[in-house]
Amino acid sequence: MKVGILGGGQLGRMLLQAAANYTVETFVLERDNNCPAAHLCHHFVQGDITDYNTVYQFGKQVDALTIEIEAVNVAALEQLEAEGVQIYPSPNAIKTIKNKIIQKEFYRQHQIPTAPFVITNILNEVFQHTHFLPAVHKIGEGGYDGRGVQIIRNEKEIEQGFNDPAVLEKMITIDKEIAIIVARNQHGETAVYPPAEMIFDQVLNILEYQITPARINRDLLWKAEAIAIKVVQELNSAGLFAIEFLIDKQQEIWVNETAPRVHNSGHHTIEASYCSQYDMLWRIILGYPLGNTKLICPSAMINILGEPGYNGTPIYQGLQDTLKTEQAFVHLYGKHSTKPGRKMGHVTLLAKEEGELIYQAHKIKQKLKVIA
Amino acid sequence: MKVGILGGGQLGRMLLQAAANYTVETFVLERDNNCPAAHLCHHFVQGDITDYNTVYQFGKQVDALTIEIEAVNVAALEQLEAEGVQIYPSPNAIKTIKNKIIQKEFYRQHQIPTAPFVITNILNEVFQHTHFLPAVHKIGEGGYDGRGVQIIRNEKEIEQGFNDPAVLEKMITIDKEIAIIVARNQHGETAVYPPAEMIFDQVLNILEYQITPARINRDLLWKAEAIAIKVVQELNSAGLFAIEFLIDKQQEIWVNETAPRVHNSGHHTIEASYCSQYDMLWRIILGYPLGNTKLICPSAMINILGEPGYNGTPIYQGLQDTLKTEQAFVHLYGKHSTKPGRKMGHVTLLAKEEGELIYQAHKIKQKLKVIA
């Protein structure tokens, strides 16, 4: 089977590492021919994943397509789907998710709990909704990894918002953030991973580390799982999905957003789960049975981010020390240059004790720095 | 760092899957451009790994070289080593091991216990050693995966032996076969993996399945570990080594043979160990600390072999069923054609209970067949 991936970043890289456990012929489309996934596929095609013709021509060579980023040309995918190429997730699901306005309306339409919101088309409209503040302003299209999201605490901060179509969302007083990965195959069967609990860096608004399983009570777990499955069933698409939740101080649970692809919150599944998220997506694409989502061992996952103030060829300070950590698994993405906050790699830790996981995660966070 | 691999089979494939956790630039030299490793490296070079000039030119592009098969041009490696290319293992270690006569003499010279043997240059010489029978006749160079090994039970069977330089080795009445993987870095530090216990198919003389850790008592374990380390220290080479042992009915332990590379007996380390054998070799090559050889969980590993009577494009009968096994990890090597006994993939099982491992291994063995 010939399968193409739109995008060649670290998610593509790990997808291709997993692909080599099967007999699939792999294609990657990406503008940067030095990208993390470029050398791990059978056929690398240099090109723009947002361009209709490029995506269409790329897709015509393969039996199935998947994505590692939502910012792709959906019209080309719709045409390819109409011509019989299998797309994971469906172009319709990508369309629903890639625009945060449509995504939020999808939740509302299906009674999926999500923070109250209004839509603002230009920045000035935010002034009509000051009763919503403090709020989070999220740009409709083009946000990624914390970009395109702006906190607006009071009227004075409104000017920091977006002058493009955006969602203005009531700020939830967050107690915890969790993510649940759900796999869905062509027959509508689903498999659900245990939730990961995410701890964010307040400055860069990017994941600092996470631990799995999340420390939540059983009632909340069941509710979160039920909602996660509902999101995926309503999207009505085969593929792999990560549903991010906010849990507020009153222990109410709200869907924050959904990613219709392998996801940062599932990196740990490579070592901590019987079937990794990457393996799972291949199983779905290749028509194999869904895999076992159970944990082999509790885990922590630390993103290795470019240090503020450094741009250029990366130097991994503290790597030797990190590699000495007995239960650590190091993944470097092989990116040719670092910049502040850029995802350069990750470390997964396995340990039965939660305290040990947190202690080791902090240690790695302190010693491993990407400078230039 | 630029690193080349001589050979592009399944061992190279798994090495490259592991390489993508680091920032190494990879090269593969192999005659078959459809080989399992061809598409997973940065630079694939089509060529003969036994040819001096081909290996030399290939090696001149890289900082370090490793092998996934011993049948390589050692003279070229010696020249490259003299010119400053790092070779894992050292050409001298490959020379010692690739010829079974030299390998056996190496064991004798260093008082490493190995089955009594004589050297025969032509078949007729076997008749001078009939007191050695029953014996195993092993061809000096060119054997692989059970080829080049002939059992000679009595004088009548002598004619089945080799008319080339060979080792005639007293047959050990085998109680168990185990293998121990030892890693050694540039500083002479070693790391030892728990032993795997191997169960052989008596017909094809090829591994049927193995379980780890081996079911041996502590005294035998310590002895085996000490011998394994001695073998590697006497070879005096950095790299990764698999030492195969025979344990006889009297519980005496004998080195059967050594492989100076990642090895079939270490496949399970991908999922069952904190640091896989493939990861470990990269750590050695890249100058990183040795990894953690401890088991995350006991495991079984089943080779998926081409069924007798089938040649051609492989069909993996029973694959869907195997993929449903909850604690199974399936690895297919993506070989374009199958033949009887050819290694087409493997399955690793994780389970705490030995009985469960054996039960599941037998089940997979029965249901998963590669036909054409």
Explain the overall architecture.
The structure is a homodimer of 372-residue chains. By secondary structure, chain A is α+β, with helices and mostly antiparallel strands. Chain A has 10 helices and 20 strands. In chain A, the strands form 4 sheets. In chain A, strands 10, 11, 12, 13, 14, 15, 16, 18 and 19 form a 9-stranded antiparallel sheet that branches. In chain A, strands 3-2-1-4-5 form a 5-stranded parallel sheet, with helices on both faces. In chain A, strands 6-9-7-8 form a 4-stranded antiparallel sheet, with helices on one face. In chain A, a hairpin with a 4-residue loop joins β12 and β13. In chain A, α2 runs parallel beside α3. The mean pLDDT of chain A is 95. The A-B interface holds A 13-14, 16-17, 20-23, 26, 39-42, 274, 283, 288-289, 291-292, 294, 296-297, 314, 316, 319-320, 323-324, 326-327, 329-332, 334, 350 and B 13-14, 16-17, 20-23, 26, 39-42, 274, 283, 288-289, 291-292, 294, 296-297, 319-320, 323-324, 326-327, 329-332, 334, 350.
Summed up:
The structure is a homodimer of 372-residue chains. With 372 residues, chain A is α+β, with helices and mostly antiparallel strands.
Keywords:
homodimer; 372 residues; alpha+beta; Rossmann fold; Dna Ligase, domain 1; D-amino Acid Aminotransferase, Chain A, domain 1; nine-stranded antiparallel sheet; five-stranded parallel sheet
Secondary structure: elements and pairs:
The structure is a homodimer of 372-residue chains.
Chain A: E1 2-6, H1 10-19, E2 25-30, E3 43-46, H2 52-60, E4 64-67, H3 74-82, E5 86-88, H4 91-98, H5 100-109, E6 117-120, E7 135-139, E8 149-152, E9 166-170, E10 174-184, E11 190-192, E12 196-201, E13 206-212, H6 218-235, E14 239-248, E15 253-259, H7 269-272, H8 277-286, E16 299-305, E17 315-317, H9 319-324, E18 328-332, E19 343-350, H10 354-367, E20 369-371
Parallel strand pairs in A: 1-2, 1-4, 2-3, 4-5
Antiparallel strand pairs in A: 6-9, 7-8, 7-9, 10-11, 10-12, 10-14, 12-13, 13-16, 14-15, 16-19, 17-20, 18-19
